[in-house]
Amino acid sequence: MLWRVQRYLVAQRGIAAGLVDSLIRSGTLYADARANAVFLLSGTDGAPVGAISCFALAPGRRCISTAGARPNPPWLGELIAQTSAVFCGFDADATGDRMASEMIALHPSVKRLRPTHHDWNDVLRSQP
After folding, report:
1. Which of 11, 41, 86, 106 has its CA 20 to 30 A from that of 53?
2. What is the rounded distance in angstroms from the CA atom of residue 12 to the CA atom of residue 124?
3. Is-contact 27 42, C-beta < 8 A?
């Protein structure tokens, strides 16, 4: 099952093979029983928090998923208080635009990073 996930991520989602292999070796990427990719990008407390497309595009940044289209996850206020810059990177569609607007309305210090394509995986695939 893992070979399917590996092939899909590299060929279809545009994630570098070296990054995929590294994540597999570290145990932070695996295949579940239905051959779905499971990513574990952990915070300092070990809790899974990550978004692999963001990490592939900007490895020097801390990338966090809101677990879907959620403009105000319960941990966001605390994160904003701990750092100088927080950017939201919702998809470039009506839902993503609405979620970004709602997040910024609730947390005015948040800035929007809008992908140049529909989502961050499409941005990855567009790169040579």
Report:
1. 106
2. 10
3. no
The answer to whether 67 touches 73, Cβ cutoff 8 Å, is yes
* pLDDT tens by residue, 96-115: 899 999 999 999 999 998 98
Burial class of residue 112, CB neighbours in 10 A (0-12, 13-18, 19+): middle
Residue, of 66 and 1, whose pLDDT is higher = 1
At 62, the amino acid letter reads: R
The token pair at 99 is: 């979620």
| Stretch (H or E) spanning 2 | helix 2-11
Residue 66 CA to residue 71 CA, distance in Å, equals 8
Please tell me the pTM assigned to this model.
Answer: 0.62
Q: Which two tokens stand for residue 48?
A: 């899974």
CA distances from 28 to 19, 51, 72 (A): 11, 12, 26
Q: Using pLDDT thresholds of 50, 70 and 90, give the confidence band for residue 40.
A: low
Q: Are strands 111-112 and 87-88 parallel, antiparallel or unpaired?
A: parallel
